[in-house]
Every structure is written in C-alpha cells, then in structure tokens.
Design a protein that fits this description.
- This protein is α/β, with parallel strands linked by helices.
- The chain folds into two domains: about 1-80 and about 155-215, P-loop containing nucleotide triphosphate hydrolases (Rossmann fold), CATH 3.40.50; about 90-155, no CATH class.
- About 35% of the residues lie in helices and about 25% in strands.
- It has seven helices and ten strands.
- The strands form two sheets. Strands 6-7-8-3-9-10 form a six-stranded mixed β-sheet, sandwiched between helices. Strands 2-1-4-5 form a four-stranded antiparallel β-sheet, with helices on one face.
- Strand 1 (about 1-10) and strand 2 (about 15-25) form a beta hairpin.
- Helix 3 (about 95-105) crosses helix 4 (about 110-125), helix 3 (about 95-105) packs parallel to helix 5 and helix 4 packs across helix 5 (about 140-150).
- The model has no long low-confidence stretch (mean pLDDT about 90).
- The structure holds adenosine-5'-triphosphate.
- Part of the ABC transporter FtsEX involved in cellular division. Important for assembly or stability of the septal ring.
Length: about 220
C-alpha cells in the first residue's frame, strides 16, 4: 500500500511543487496520475521512491515511512520497485539483453536464473527477438518497452512509471498501457503519470488529478 498524508514538497529554491496531498493506493491497485506540465506528477513519484523527501506530511510505502528512512535503508526500499523514469538512460554500448541483465547482476543474481528472467522480461514486452540488438537501433516505442523490461526484471511488487508514453504515437502508447495493465492483472501495484488525457479515455483505472501541486480529483 502507498499512502500520502498531507504531503507537501518545497524544493530548495523555495518552490512548492506539492501542497497538502493525501491519497491511498491499495496493494494491487493501478492508478494514473494526471495533470498539466509542472503539476507535480514527477515530484509525487519521486517521493514514493525516496529520490526526493517530503517537506511535511508522511509517505508510507508497505508500512514504512519513506521520509524517515536513513540513506542506507533506501536501496532495500527500492528493491520493491520497478522504476521507469525519464532520466534513467539506456546503455547504448550494451545489447538489449545486457541492459535488462544489469539490474540482476547488481543484485548478485545467479547467472542461469538471471538469463531466464531477462528472457521472460523481454518476452513480456515483445522484444525477445531483439535481444542482441543495440538500443540505438530500436524505435522510440521499443526503447520505452526496453525500459519497462529493465524495470520489471527484478519482479517488483510496485511499478512506477513517469510519463512512459511521452513522445510516442497513440498506437505505441496504447501498447505500453496494455503492458502495464497486464502487470496490474497479476497483482502488481502500478502507478503511472501522464499528461495525455486521450490515453485515459475509457480506462476503468483510478485517476488522481494534480493541478499546481494540489490533488483536485
Ligand atoms: N529540483 C527542483 N527544484 C526546483 N523546482 C523544481 C524541481 N523539480 C521540479 N521543480 C518544479 O516543480 C514543479 C513540478 O514539477 P514536476 O516535474 O513534478 O511536474 P510534472 O507534473 O511532472 O511536469 P511534466 O509533465 O512537465 O513532467 C514544476 O514547476 C517544476 O519546475
């Protein structure tokens, strides 16, 4: 479960990016964070992953108060997460396969099991036939799917994606949303930010709307 209680975030320059935000996303729920550019969507997701800390209020993830975690505990918190953020670059000098393998290597995974997991993750996002390719040779939509494969290879219980469909045409964007829905269907908690209202059309998912740092719906 992810729970925000009267959370505000003021950046060091004094700008208040979130104001008094409270909501709960239950375990296994899928929620979309919607709002205009600058509304605070990225900030909200960064607080959950302890990339930023709230100024006031509490952010609770799986019973842990994220804002109070010491730095040494943050990597343990992040083991629960699959993160798809814009600033996480692909490694263009490594193959598709190696890009997805890397998080498992870092966490010391046994190599045979790691290979199986990488292939399963690539299969899930429809990139198994591109495992030897370099990311630079992939389309924008394929690169986004590769980022998702890298995020889910560790089988996280919470998947957080910041504008994963930005810069993609509608068809690719719908494919990507379908991938996220498939994780939700197997019990993963999914939080996705988007300013793309078209994508939300007809989706039964919960939508949290931010406007100028405040939750308005
Ligand atoms: N490190 C920072 N220091 C100061 N202000 C920041 C910082 N990061 C973000 N902001 C400001 O906080 C506000 C919210 O930014 P945020 O990136 O959370 O919005 P967003 O809804 O994700 O926007 P977009 O859809 O354009 O990505 C913006 O006005 C932004 O300029």
């Amino acid at each position: 479960m992810i729970s925000f209680s009267e959370v505000s975030k003021r950046y060091p320059n004094g700008f208040e990016a979130l104001r008094n935000v409270s909501f709960t996303v239950e375990t296994g729920e899928m929620a979309l964070i919607n709002g205009h550019s600058g509304a605070g969507k990225t900030t909200l997701l960064r607080l959950i992953a302890a990339i930023e800390r709230s100024t006031t209020g509490s952010v609770i993830v799986n019973g842990q108060d994220v804002g109070r975690l010491n730095d040494a505990a943050v990597p343990f918190l992040r083991r629960n997460f699959g993160l798809v953020f814009q600033d996480q670059k692909l490694l263009f000098d490594r193959s598709v396969f190696e890009n997805v393998l890397l998080p498992l290597q870092i966490s010391g995974f046994e190599s045979k099991a790691a290979v199986r997991r990488v292939r399963a993750a690539l299969d899930k996002v429809g990139l198994l036939n591109k495992e030897k390719a370099r990311p630079i040779t992939l389309s924008g939509g394929e690169q986004q799917r590769l980022c998702i494969a890298r995020a889910i290879v560790s089988r996280p219980s919470i998947l957080i994606a910041d504008e994963p469909t930005s810069n993609l045409d509608m068809e690719y964007a719908k494919d990507i949303m379908a991938i996220f829905k498939s994780f939700h269907q197997v019990g993963v908690t999914v939080l996705i930010s988007t300013h793309d209202v078209e994508l939300l059309g007809g989706t039964p998912q919960r939508i949290l709307t931010l406007s100028h740092g405040e939750l308005t719906g």
